Amino acid sequence: MLAGNNNLVKPVVNVLGKLFLLLTGEESRHNLNYWRFGDYLGIGAGAHGKVTFPERDSIERTEKPKSPARYNATPHAQLRSAARIDPEAVPLEFMMNALRLTAGVAESHFQTSTGLSLASIDSVLRRLRQRCLLQDDCLATTPLGLRYLDSVVAEFS
Fold this sequence. Notes:
By secondary structure, the chain is α+β, with helices and mostly antiparallel strands. 32% of the residues lie in helices and 17% in strands. The chain contains seven helices and five strands.
């Protein structure tokens, strides 16, 4: 552990269960955007992206060819392949990202990011909260829920 002011260091458990210590304010903005279900563009060979199209009521995952040789040989207009996220899978996709954050996200962020009503997952939230796996005041796991994160996320499928 780093010496000094403990308020400057916070523990983070990644999805593989490894513990990391991050300096407060030094979190990766890219990862925070990703975990908050924000949009991002994939640039370069093997890159992935996620783009929300509110006017089409659609969220798409994008992917570029993995091989640099294939990427460089492909005409620009043909580089991007996209797949719409099935609307039934959106709550799972959101929670798979958001619940990685130990602080979680505000409940209102679910509707803002997905276009879905929180009521659409209310029964799952109630069940997980009754089992002390989710916090009551936001979309975040409890310490017990973090320990069983894969099982918690699976409840949204």
